[in-house]
Design brief:
The protein starts with about 20 loop residues before the first helix and ends in a 13-residue tail after the last helix. α1 packs across α5 and α3 packs across α4. Helix content is about 45%, strand content about 10%. The protein has a single domain, classed as Four Helix Bundle (Hemerythrin (Met), subunit A), CATH 1.20.120.920. A hairpin with a 5-residue loop joins β1 and β2. The protein is mostly helical.
């Protein structure tokens, strides 16, 4: 799926803590941004982002935020990472190696990713439950509200976000 600089952006599986290649560095950074958005959305609905269902409960790990963000990874992170690489908005010189063998985005690389992420959040998507166009950046909040309503017994089933 990488059409850009294939040698610089070769991906050989998912690596993290630290990411071992450039695509994983971008994904890790985007996942961190998305996790923060989901944790904030859950807290705004009165839910504890630490207590989840799919991810194991560990101190300091927002399991429910990680559960919620699973629905958005392809739309908000994976797709954006590929777009940035394929449009050559991220280049090899936007990364730096760490002494432990990891690869991280440098300051310019992080800036480019954050700008693209903010632009992506302003795009409109059709939400199948609300039946209206919603900015991508509000979808975690909408889904957190739907989850809260389900947990409180107002909705029989939780309607997951499905991108079409």
């Amino acid at each position: 799926m990488v059409r850009g600089d294939r040698p610089s952006f070769a991906l050989d599986g998912r690596t993290r803590r630290p990411p071992r290649d450039r695509p994983n560095a971008v994904l890790s950074f985007l996942y961190a941004l998305l996790r923060g958005e989901c944790a904030g959305a859950l807290e705004s609905c009165g839910l504890d982002p630490q207590v989840g269902y799919l991810h194991a409960l560990r101190p300091g790990r927002p399991a429910l935020a990680l559960d919620l963000m699973e629905e958005f990874r392809p739309v908000l992170a994976d797709r954006l990472a590929l777009t940035l690489i394929n449009r050559r908005q991220l280049r090899a010189d936007h990364f730096e190696a760490t002494p432990g063998g990891g690869i991280l985005l440098n300051e310019e690389g992080r800036r480019r990713v954050v700008v693209a992420y903010q632009e992506r959040k302003q795009e409109l998507l059709e939400h199948r439950v609300l039946r209206q166009r919603v900015p991508v950046g509000l979808i975690p909040h909408v889904q957190a509200r739907l989850l809260a309503r389900h947990l409180r017994g107002d909705l029989k089933d939780y309607p997951p976000f499905v991108y079409r």
